[in-house]
Design a protein that fits this description.
The chain has 321 residues and is of the alpha/beta class. It folds into two domains: 209 residues, no CATH class; 90 residues, no CATH class. It is 35% helix and 24% strand. The strands form four sheets. The protein has a six-stranded mixed β-sheet with strand order 1-2-3-4-8-10. The protein has a four-stranded mixed β-sheet with strand order 7-6-5-9. Strands 11-12-13 form a three-stranded antiparallel β-sheet, with no helix packed on it. The relative contact order is 0.13. It binds zinc ion (ZN). Zinc ion binds next to loops.
């Protein structure tokens, strides 16, 4: 049962919007694209695990995804946390490809891919840190709880896993997704005590209530001037062309694609990059509409929540997702 679902990350929404709305020659574009693809791979890796979680039904675990808790002045983050009456399990999920050489002695992973060598932190060490934070966090709130395990899952099935330290105990805690069930079954078998389900649900609820999402603002991070944000309704087919409002619909002057709802995406980008609210005047300018009245009609039709009277009404765009 999923207590805290995985939601499409705000970071990816903002970076996607920036990739659409910044000129391709913008000096920050390279860094934005790199951050997007790394984070997107991570998100995809986590999502791909759902298939393997189904094999754990025999224990009816409670799942909490993307947990972020505050402890002694800092936040710590857990990709996925499984709570069962027998044990708790922290999963650190990595979606990296290439030939991975785990060097646990030196807390690092070397990756060789297309003649390029890179170094990553050892995910087992990361999972150990999360385990220690979570254990302390739980001890402050509960007198007793099941034993906490942690493992690192390499979600990318194309990755080649090798190790520079075969006998190192940490290497047993680097697994492929297919080995998850077997590991979970072993934890279950080794457990000495069964805690009541009501207690596990209570712990899950407490973690859920205390988990706060990371505040991310791509505009601030990359010091983007709002003047650099492209205006207009972008054609979904030819990307860079601005569509025109004609007789109640959007039309692309280049590929002639027609849409009634293309402004939704444009306004979503506005919400992510400029402001979560918009006035009809601002909307007219941003969407390149002929009159403020047409902007008003369009916004009213979207049935968005709004603040203020008829004059100076601000439409709330955050519900566009
Ligand atoms: Zn087009």
């Amino acid at each position: 049962m999923v207590i805290k679902p995985r939601t499409y990350p705000e970071k990816l929404l903002q970076l996607e919007a920036l990739q659409r709305r910044l000129p391709s020659t913008h000096p920050q574009m390279g860094a934005i694209t790199t951050e997007f693809s790394q984070y997107d791979a991570g998100w995809y890796g986590e999502k791909s695990m759902d298939y393997y979680y189904r094999n754990l039904d025999f224990l009816e675990p409670l799942f909490l995804h993307n947990v972020r808790l505050f402890y002694r002045g800092y936040y710590f983050q857990i990709d996925t946390l499984l709570l069962t009456p027998y044990f708790f399990l922290i999963l650190e999920i990595k979606n990296i490809t290439g030939k991975l050489i785990f060097d646990h002695e030196h807390h690092q992973v070397l990756r060789r891919s297309h003649e390029v060598e890179e170094v990553f932190p050892d995910p087992v060490v990361q999972a150990d840190q999360q385990r220690s934070f979570l254990s302390d966090w739980l001890h402050e709130r509960f007198t007793d709880f099941p034993y906490l395990y942690n493992i690192a899952v390499i979600a990318n099935t194309n990755a080649i896993l090798t190790t520079a330290s075969q006998s190192h105990p940490n290497h047993q805690r680097v697994i492929r997704p297919t080995a998850l069930r077997e590991n979970v079954a072993a934890f279950h078998k080794n457990s000495k005590k069964r805690y009541p389900r009501s207690m596990i649900r209570n712990i899950a609820q407490t973690i859920y209530e205390n988990s706060t999402p990371e505040q991310y603002c791509a505009i601030n991070k990359y010091k983007i001037s709002k003047r650099d944000i492209k205006e207009g309704v972008l054609c979904t087919e030819c990307k860079n062309t601005t569509m025109m409002w004609r007789h109640g619909r959007w039309k692309c002057p280049r590929c002639e694609k027609v849409s009634r709802h293309a402004h939704r995406m444009a306004l979503r980008d506005y919400a992510k990059l400029v402001s979560p609210e918009i006035r009809s005047k601002e909307c007219r300018v941003y969407l390149h509409l002929p009159t403020t009245d047409s902007a008003k009609r369009l916004l009213r039709k979207m049935k968005l929540p709004h603040n203020g009277g008829t004059k100076g009404r601000r439409y709330d765009l955050s519900s566009l997702g």
